[in-house]
Design goal:
The protein is α/β, with parallel strands linked by helices and 313 residues long. It contains 10 helices and 12 strands. The chain has 2 domains: 111 residues, 3-Layer(aba) Sandwich (Rossmann fold), CATH 3.40.50; 178 residues, Rossmann fold, CATH 3.40.50.720. Bound molecules: NADP nicotinamide-adenine-dinucleotide phosphate and glyoxylic acid. NADP nicotinamide-adenine-dinucleotide phosphate binds next to helix 6 and strand 7.
Length: 313
């Protein structure tokens, strides 16, 4: 079994070591520019086009993340880049769901308990008790009820908050009010106090966090975007903050990453910024998941997590 590996900014030696330990018979190498030698599997994160183009013998491409927007972008820009022979398989959870639940819970509880406002008061040395937010109307709306969104929604519901979820096809999740499809989008948004985005970035979801969406939320709503920067119309968020329609936002992902030093988001105290860390790819869990699926594919068995390229996720 020949495996190609590519993950920029990662400790490639450690990944190769862990794959070699799990698959002692395999021949695994880090892809370098100009390497066109045959491979059965590619294990990648944001690969360059030349790594995949023309690799007709490839059986599967394992994406070392949940989101496949970057790799599908290669195919959209130059159709035929992804070898027809290869299934595209994404990470399913792999330790990301619990990280995402921690991150989003922290943001939601910070707004619910007004910790961000107490931080401002502390800076002013002011001892002042703020009116608590009524829990019964502090409705959290989670966009996307997949592997991550469903876990996040259930975690938030465990705090006793009213939680809604939105997906493409109808879903049923205990304790969550679910909505599906374009026809139910406005009903989902109506009066939501915290909007959490966990949609995949596809042509259908591009720019979904926009002025119209914000206008349907409760006045003084909060936004938590942990999916992709391309979901957010940035100027619409700044305008909604200026008008008070949105009170604050927690953003982990941006249209341009790293976020440029002169970007206005850095100067907006109501925006909390993290550098795309809400759910990191964990080596141990990811290697175990990918290896399990490689072995299944070699045996001719079906695996989960295969991306529907047409649908875009
Ligand atoms: P997933 O399991 O594929 O779930 C996607 C969910 O979005 C599904 O519920 C799907 O609906 C729904 N959806 C897709 N297109 C839709 C549309 N047009 N309208 C309404 N609903 C739509 O994905 P996941 O594993 O939960 O990951 C979600 C995203 O999180 C990834 O794509 C990635 O961009 C992001 N992410 C970010 C980080 C980070 O560190 N910031 C880490 C990991 C992942 P159906 O249920 O009907 O299919
Ligand atoms: C990270 O952003 C991922 O999609 O896994």
């Amino acid at each position: 079994m020949k495996i190609l590996f590519y993950m920029p900014h990662a400790d490639a030696a450690a990944w190769l070591h862990d794959f070699a330990r799990a698959l002692p018979e395999a021949d695994i190498r880090e892809w370098q520019a100009g390497d066109t030698a045959p491979a059965d599997f590619a294990v990648v994160w944001r690969p360059p086009r030349e790594m995949l183009a023309g690799r007709d013998g490839l059986r599967a491409i394992f994406n070392l993340g949940a989101g496949v927007d970057a790799i599908l972008g290669l195919e959209r820009d130059v159709p035929g880049t992804l070898p027809r022979s290869a299934a595209l398989i994404r990470l399913e959870d792999g330790g990301m769901a619990s990280q995402m639940a921690e991150y989003v819970s922290h943001a939601v509880l910070r707004y619910l308990r007004r910790f961000d406002e107490y931080q401002t008061l502390q800076a002013e040395r002011r001892w002042h008790v703020l009116e608590p937010h009524p829990r019964s109307t502090f409705t959290v709306g989670v966009l996307g009820l997949g592997v991550l969104g469903a876990h996040v929604a259930q975690t938030l519901a465990s705090f006793g908050l009213p939680v809604r979820g939105y997906s493409r096809s109808a879903r049923q999740i205990d304790g969550i009010a679910t909505f599906a499809g374009d026809a139910q989008f406005d009903a989902f948004l109506d009066g939501v106090k915290v909007l959490v985005n966990l949609l995949p970035h596809t042509p259908d979801t591009e720019g979904v966090l926009n002025a119209r969406t914000f206008s349907k939320l409760a006045r003084g709503a909060y936004l938590v975007n942990v999916a992709r920067g391309g979901h957010l119309v940035e100027q619409d968020l700044l305008d909604a903050l200026a008008s008070g329609q949105v009170a604050a936002a927690t953003l982990d992902v941006f249209r341009e990453e790293p976020l440029p030093p002169d970007h206005p988001f850095w100067r907006e105290p109501r925006i909390a910024i993290t550098p795309h860390v809400s759910a990191l790819t964990l080596r141990e869990e990811s290697v175990a998941q990918v290896v399990r699926k490689m072995v299944a594919l070699m045996r001719g068995e079906a695996v989960s997590g295969v991306v529907d390229v047409e649908r875009g996720y």
